[in-house]
Amino acid sequence: MTSTALPTTDELxxxxxxxxxxxxAEVAEGEDFPARxxxxxxxxxxxxxAGETDVEEALTAxxxxxxxxxxxxxxxxxxxxxxxxxxxxxxxxDLADLVTVEAGKIRSxxxxxxxxxxxxxxxxxxxxxxxxxxxxASERPGHRLAETWHPLGVVGVVSxxxxxxxxxxxxxxxxxxxxxxxxxxxxxxxxxxxxxCHRLLARAAEETxxxxxxxxxxxxxxxxGERLVDDPRVALVSATGSTRMGREVGPRVAxxxxxxxxxxxxxxxxxxxxxxxxxxxxQGIVFAAAGTAGQRCTTLRRLIVHRDIADxxxxxxxxxxxxxxxxxxxxxxxLVGPLVTTGALDRMQHALTRVRADGGELLAGGNRRLAEAxxxxxxxxxxxxxxxxxxxxxxxxxxxxxxxxxGYDTLDEAIALHNDVPQGLSSSxxxxxxxxxxxxxxxxxxxxGIANVNIGTSGAEIGGAFGGEKDTGGGRESxxxxxxxxxxxxxxxxxxxxxxxxAQGVSFL
Length: 509
Ligand code: UN1
Known about the structure:
The protein has helices at 9-23, 52-69, 74-90, 92-103, 107-127, 166-177, 191-208, 222-230, 243-255, 278-290, 307-322, 342-357, 392-395, 411-419, 434-441; strands at 29-37, 42-47, 135-136, 143-151, 154-158, 181-185, 215-217, 234-240, 259-263, 268-272, 300-306, 361-364, 368-369, 379-380, 383-386, 402-408, 423-424, 426-430, 450-453, 465-466, 469-470, 477-478, 487-495. The model has no long low-confidence stretch (mean pLDDT 97). The chain has a 7-stranded mixed beta sheet with strand order 12-15-16-11-10-18-19, with helices on both faces. A 5-stranded parallel beta sheet has the order 7-6-5-8-9, sandwiched between helices. It is globular, with a radius of gyration of 24 Å. Helix 3 (74-90) packs across helix 7. It has 15 helices and 23 strands. Bound molecules: 2-aminohexanedioic acid. The site of 2-aminohexanedioic acid has 11 residues, from loops.
């Protein structure tokens, strides 16, 4: 199914301008940096990219702001983030529109992404009163041993197109209450959402009396990101993107002994056990695999199904895939919007060619859509492919809606297949057998940073820590105690005894 005609680029341009105007974001138009929309695949308008001096100026300003911000009481820092959350609520609809224009998300998912920003602001405001250290039992009489947490410095945030605003907010809301300042380099594909978020945060800073330079935005290409990676003033580089990008960023930051927090690719799988509630599983699988047109790092890419139910589940999924409405993400009936670029579509087609050469059987989808209406856009039917084994292409992350279906006989075999990929972000099991669920969640089960039961791999709440292992990079963002990555701890020994007692029973003098 294809939903109705696409909006024109002129209509989308007008819509984007109206949203930016409502938000109060000024757009410095220029020639060198085009904003575009995947809905038609065409440019909207040109922007000005940051040059070498802009980067230098932003880093100097963010560092200077840090010196004030780090001593501002954390609950007062929370005031800034509370105000940001209020402004996000007020501009929810405009922000969601911009996410749809730039990232091609359907309305419900675009609103969900804005909600994720609001949620993390609420979380961070609470956190601003809970940056707890601990008091530790000292082995010496009259001594207090304590752990304290202090702000870290400037955090460089490098974000990806697919969550253009939520991932920024996870980093920024938490970093700000932790007393850090932020320099943000968004994806080159999503500068407008970045301008909007930056403007709202600047407004919140004005209104709450926070230093103007607690947040700086740098639109630009790879060279801008490289400056953040290499500059010793950037205490932490938090980068979201491909494993290829992470392999470059991690060692470069490490070479200057800086800290990095990497959120890289996933190749997420779900195991479907014979006892699974299949109605629920089908819903969970289709949202996780075809939602966001397969462009979440948490997208479900592999389905490991018990052989007793593999045929019937594949049949049910084939039917649902055949009816997924692909098209204009602003149309309320659409479930699958465009891929971000035609390059992404080429990579999807290439993966499908490879998997077929490996003996995979295309059960549904995979055809390009709307090529005549929008030749520069990249609409596709999500693809469902039955495979016998995890060949190289199955073990890679193709950032597009392809779901590979594999069979298994024993849970041990399923878990082995599940973990036999380089990435380790998200995972799930559909089962009504508690023993199986617990094995999957145990140390001998899923090796991912996220492991779920009876829910798909995508759509995590902000309250938990988000991130994964192996090629996913090891970082944790968002909730739980991920805030500790944005601070430095100090261990304090205070002697109030009036005598000098050395630890470990050492005597001296
Ligand atoms: C991403 O794709 O980079 O769990 C982040 C999810 C979302 C975040 C995804 N809350 O799918």
